[in-house]
């Protein structure tokens, strides 16, 4: 049974989600670890069978919270969890490398971080000479839709000129992108790889909300790259996210405003607008400034 | 006590604004970006980009414009209007995208601003009568009230007797957030004026100015003395603050963006002339070319983009279009060039002969139907005669960005070359071609337009025959239609308005008849549809309307061939239908 305790997050939509706590291989049976999710102090440890156990630190009975192990991470729910997490079928493909590329703390709300991940327009300015370069600044028209079955937000037909799109790139390329938002605080990117014409690399950002305006972002990769060492791949991803971090921490307000009149969208922001509407429709209030 | 929001407060010292820096300040809970442009204008703006809320203080100041770090949006000096959105380089941004600005005045080595300040920044006679010397500012984690209370007991030594410790102190109150202290001792006396900047409910900055500048040899010692004494005051104020409950933080309300900007920009409504400008300067910039510098008579002039033109409504009732020549950020005036046309029907003649310095003219807001892409690897500008005017604005936009361009300026003779003062800043980027025959011009254009490559763009403006020649030569040299941009002075096509047809307005489900002799534009306006227009002869592109269905009889000179062939837009001032019916997307 789910323990009913007072929590600083009063948003049932968010409480009832699976949230990525940490990579499974960072948990041990020897020590009890401590962390924070949605303002709650949590403790965790592997049990004698190697299964993760997570409980509220303030709970004298240490009642186990619902947990799930998926895509290298331990996921926890503080409310009534959905049966399953969103699907990433590529995770099970035998020739893929599944890599936890790192966790970076950012003093911003999860939706701001998700929206930044969905944004191509900043590549030439924030990821200069890697994911973009002036004067190739144009964001071509792309399509956005909500999948009627899964209710995921999709951006498709995205194309952007990239000087060095991945560790496997040796020269500039027009990269094809697909973006998918299957969870209020998780986002997945499918990206052209120079290695296989028909298949795409999967790059995901799973945000753990520590507080409304503070996250730890886990970077998950599911790549076709057989050659580069994990160190090289992690360094690449951490460099990219390290470039985003100071931008995100200079956004004001830190919570994502859902009122259409709070900020000025352009056509390049089509997917961000869809994401904001989608959050409104879901009734999310944590990490956002709801529309009046 | 007055509402602090109605008062002027210091937000920075002048030395916080070295060349091309952006200073991050805060006043009454609101963050501001403070920056000095190359024309010495000091901008105080809300410290967030209207697009995604990123602090502008982490952007870049090139002396004319401030560029946001996140997506490269550029905002003009003075007006804070957005001039360029790199994600959509082919579009002109909506003029109304404008950051919130606050007034700024430099006085006593400080930059003064305020939320909604009344009148002028405070005049302090003891500073006006002296030789003010600005001391180092100190931030304090305490409210302005606590800091002011501490300042009343503050002690320092007069210049000349810095080593002593028993100067007599006298306090002069100077309003809600300022006071002066005079230290007298050993036959010396010094007066310092202290302004306390309320940063937030629990933070302040002490800004101090001595009434008299010490001798050079003493300045370091004086600065050190005051820094030490004020440092002690800061410690006392911060201790006092910790003894009190933490005050509620100040909340600075962020203005909503306009409804129009929160969705798709609205269409402009008509050929109106809402702006009043005064001719500040009129001069002959070349043979038969008069230049006019137009300044606002009221509100600041709206932001314009390179390539933009204004409609000038002349005293004789005529309306004429002139390109703005100003570079980016040069927003205090509009400068236009007017060529006296031999067969003038009264437009250029009126401007040359009857409009003088000091006269007021009605003009439209700037419109840009000739937008400049700033993502080209090479841009070729071809100007014939007075067609150089939009190019001058464009080249001044590209030059600071380091983007490669060349300007080919064709004219009859040396004395016909206009705007020397702008051209001289462009150096080797300008090539002048003088006195060429049509054949020689074509040969030169062929040379200039050879070697088209990916991400090259060409902009052409000049007399009709030369423009036609340049377009033909560009096409032959392999330039795709989309890479060749042009602006005609006028449409010399003989307009055939004999057809009659029906137009259906798809969005309002209305069908109207267009009889021969009447334009679509006139029919729309007669039926209450608010339509923007400018030249009304098929040259400028302002009155464009999307077409959903029907065959178009294009009679304009604005659309490119590929745009004509697509058949999905029409210039309603001259073009008509060859089919019985046109369905318009309005």
Characterize the structure shown.
The complex is a heterodimer of chains A (about 290) and B (about 575). Chain A has 5 helices and 15 strands. In chain A, about 40% of the residues are buried. Chain A has helices at about 10-15, 110-115, 125, 230-250, 270-280, and strands at about 20-25, 35, 40-45, 50-55, 65-70, 75, 95-105, 145, 155-160, 175-185, 185-195, 195-210, 215-225, 255, 290. The radius of gyration of chain A is 19 Å and the shape is globular. The two termini of chain A are about 35 Å apart. In chain A, the strands form 4 sheets. Chain A has a 7-stranded antiparallel beta sheet with strand order 7-13-12-11-10-9-8, covered by helices on one side. Chain A has a 3-stranded antiparallel beta sheet with strand order 1-6-5, with no helix packed on it. A 3-stranded antiparallel beta sheet of chain A has the order 2-3-4, with no helix packed on it. By secondary structure, chain A is an alpha+beta fold. Chain B is an alpha+beta fold and about 575 residues long. Chain B has 5 domains: about 1-120, Rieske Iron-sulfur Protein, CATH 2.102.10; about 125-260, Alpha-D-Glucose-1,6-Bisphosphate, Chain A, domain 4, CATH 3.30.530; about 275-280 and about 290-365, Elongation Factor Tu (Ef-tu), domain 3, CATH 2.40.30; about 380-490, Nucleotide-binding domain of ferredoxin-NADP reductase (FNR) module (Rossmann fold); about 500-585, Ubiquitin-like (UB roll), CATH 3.10.20. In chain B, the strands form 8 sheets. In chain B, strands 12, 13, 14, 15, 16 and 17 form a 6-stranded antiparallel beta sheet that branches. In chain B, helix 2 (about 145-150) crosses helix 3 (about 215-240). Chain B is elongated, with a radius of gyration of 30 Å. At the A-B interface, helix 3 of A face helix 4 of B.
């Amino acid at each position: 049974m789910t323990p009913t305790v007072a929590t600083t997050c009063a948003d049932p939509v968010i409480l009832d989600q699976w949230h990525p706590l940490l990579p499974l291989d960072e948990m041990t049976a020897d020590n009890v670890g401590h962390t924070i999710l949605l303002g709650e102090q949590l403790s965790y440890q592997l049990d004698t069978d190697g299964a993760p156990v997570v409980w509220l630190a303030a709970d004298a009975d240490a009642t186990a919270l619902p947990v799930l192990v998926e895509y290298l991470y331990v996921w926890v729910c503080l409310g009534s969890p959905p049966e399953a997490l969103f699907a990433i079928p590529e995770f099970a493909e035998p020739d893929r490398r599944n890599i936890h590329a790192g966790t970076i703390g950012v003093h911003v709300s999860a939706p701001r971080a998700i929206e930044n991940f969905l944004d191509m327009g900043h590549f030439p300015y924030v990821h200069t000479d890697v994911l973009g370069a002036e004067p190739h600044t144009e964001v071509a028209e792309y399509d956005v839709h909500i999948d009627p079955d899964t209710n995921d937000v999709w951006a498709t037909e995205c194309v952007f000129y990239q000087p060095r799109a991945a560790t496997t790139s040796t020269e500039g390329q027009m990269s094809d992108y697909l973006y998918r938002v299957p969870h209020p605080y998780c986002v997945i990117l499918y990206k052209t790889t120079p290695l296989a014409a028909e298949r795409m690399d999967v790059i995901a950002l799973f945000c753990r909300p520590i507080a409304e305006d503070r996250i730890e972002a886990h970077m998950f990769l599911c790549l076709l790259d057989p050659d580069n060492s994990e160190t090289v791949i992690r360094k690449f991803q951490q460099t990219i996210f390290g470039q985003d971090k100071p931008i995100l921490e200079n956004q004001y307000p830190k919570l994502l405003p859902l009122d259409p009149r709070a900020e000025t969208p352009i056509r390049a922001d089509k997917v961000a607008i869809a994401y904001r509407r989608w959050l409104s429709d879901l009734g999310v209030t944590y990490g956002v400034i709801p529309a009046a | 006590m007055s509402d602090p929001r109605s008062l002027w407060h210091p937000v920075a010292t002048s030395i916080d604004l070295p060349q091309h820096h952006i200073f991050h300040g805060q006043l009454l809970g609101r963050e501001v970006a403070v920056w000095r442009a190359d024309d010495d204008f000091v901008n105080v703006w809300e410290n967030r980009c209207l697009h995604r809320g990123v602090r502008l203080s982490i952007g870049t100041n090139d002396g004319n414009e401030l560029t946001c770090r996140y997506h490269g949006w550029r905002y003009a000096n003075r007006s804070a209007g957005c001039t360029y959105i790199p994600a959509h380089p082919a579009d002109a941004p909506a003029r109304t995208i404008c950051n919130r600005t606050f007034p700024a005045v430099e006085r006593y080595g400080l930059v003064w601003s305020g939320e909604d300040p009344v009148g002028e920044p405070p005049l302090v006679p003891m500073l006006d009568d002296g030789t003010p010397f600005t001391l180092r500012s100190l931030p304090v984690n305490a409210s302005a009230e606590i800091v002011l209370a501490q300042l009343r007991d503050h002690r320092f030594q007069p210049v000349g007797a810095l080593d002593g410790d028993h100067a007599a102190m006298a306090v002069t109150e100077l309003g809600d957030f300022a006071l002066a202290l005079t230290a007298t001792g050993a036959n010396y006396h010094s007066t310092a004026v202290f302004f306390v900047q309320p940063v937030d409910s629990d933070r302040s900055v002490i800004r101090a100015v001595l009434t008299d500048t010490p001798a050079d040899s003493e300045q370091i010692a004086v600065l050190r003395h005051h820094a030490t004494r004020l440092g002690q005051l800061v410690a006392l104020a911060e201790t006092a603050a910790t003894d009190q409950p933490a005050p509620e933080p100040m909340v600075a309300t962020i203005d909503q963006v306009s409804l129009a900007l929160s969705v798709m920009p609205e269409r402009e409504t008509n050929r109106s002339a809402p702006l009043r400008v005064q001719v500040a300067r009129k001069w002959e910039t070349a043979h038969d070319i008069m230049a006019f510098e137009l300044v606002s008579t009221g509100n600041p002039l709206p932001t314009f983009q390179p390539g933009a033109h204004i409609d000038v409504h002349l005293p004789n009732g005529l309306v004429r279009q002139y390109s703005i020549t100003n570079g980016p950020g040069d927003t205090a005036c509009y400068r236009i060039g007017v060529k006296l046309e031999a067969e003038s029907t009264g437009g250029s003649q009126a401007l040359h002969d009857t409009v003088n310095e000091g006269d007021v003219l009605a003009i439209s807001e700037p419109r840009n139907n000739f937008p400049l892409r700033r993502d080209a690897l090479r841009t070729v500008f071809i100007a014939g005669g007075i067609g150089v005017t939009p190019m001058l604005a464009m080249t001044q936009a590209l030059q600071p960005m380091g983007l490669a361009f060349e300007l080919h300026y064709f004219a009859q003779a040396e004395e016909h070359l206009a705007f020397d003062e702008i051209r001289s800043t462009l150096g080797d980027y300008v090539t002048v071609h003088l006195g060429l025959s049509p054949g020689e011009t074509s040969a030169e254009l062929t040379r200039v337009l050879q070697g088209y490559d990916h991400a090259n763009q060409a902009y052409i403006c000049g007399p009709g025959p030369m423009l036609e020649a340049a377009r033909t030569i560009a096409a032959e040299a392999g330039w795709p239609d989309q890479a060749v941009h042009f602006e005609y002075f006028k449409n010399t096509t003989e307009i055939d308005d004999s057809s009659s047809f029906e137009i259906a307005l798809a969005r309002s489900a209305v069908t109207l008849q267009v009889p021969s002799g009447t334009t679509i534009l006139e029919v729309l306006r007669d039926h209450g549809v608010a339509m923007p227009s400018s030249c009304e002869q098929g040259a400028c592109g302002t009155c464009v309307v999307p077409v959903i269905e029907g065959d178009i009889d294009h009679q304009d000179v604005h659309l490119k061939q590929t745009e004509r062939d697509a058949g999905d837009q029409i210039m309603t001032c001259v073009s008509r239908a060859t089919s019985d019916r046109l369905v318009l997307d309005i």
